[in-house]
Predict the structure.
Amino acid sequence: MSALRDGALVIAIDGPAASGKGTLAKRLAAHFGLPHLDTGLLYRAVALALVDAGTDLGDERAAAEAAAALSAEGLADPRLRERAMGEAASRVSSVPQVRAALLSWQQRFAGGPEGAVLDGRDIGTVVCPGARVKLFITAAPEERARRRHRELVGRGETVSLDAILEDIRARDERDSSRAAAPLRAAPDAVQLDTTELDAEAAFAEALAIVTRLSGARR
Ligand code: CDP
């Protein structure tokens, strides 16, 4: 673990599906001894609450109520990682009242005394615009599809690589074009393309960027 100077360190990590942001966020959090929040899980949990209640995913009022009622315990459900939940989360996440209900949750998490690492789509732009470090992680859609395919097959799901590539393209389009907090890099984010990088190399690059921007020692 490394030493931090100047108080709390908030690291905001954004990027499209399966870009490697979650793995990076986890490793950076462990390295700096900071709490980590995968904010995608919040949207997945809202979607799962609707599915479990048999409610249509297009029911915006029910989605907003589910977001307001979200609890930390709900975030441990292994079903949240399933392919269908990624799609469902992307649908409920375009509802402004859902985003508003989850905003204070995320900002409370980020406001702890040591700081935090958060990954998602709008952390650097909306949730933590004042974060000391902002990373925007990208990778080519084909490479992201390969990674997500490996992950889902490893978890026992049966799905083709082509279907995953289609999911990823559709999700990129939906997440980037929605009116409420669309996926985009903050003007002061450092972009990191991980297409040619394995997890180790991506971590080394990200760590170098964080160290440079935060004044933390490695
Ligand atoms: O792991 P993956 O990148 O596939 O997805 P995720 O981070 O779990 O997010 C699932 C969906 O939730 C995304 O496609 C977004 O639509 C939405 N999301 C969001 O709108 N804002 C965030 N901060 C995080 C996720």
User: Anything to note?
Assistant: The pocket of cytidine-5'-diphosphate is lined by residues 17-18, 22, 39-40, 43-44, 86, 89-90, 93, 120-122, 171, 175 (CB under 6 Å). The two ends are 7 Å apart (CA to CA). Confidence is low (pLDDT under 50) at residues 1-5.
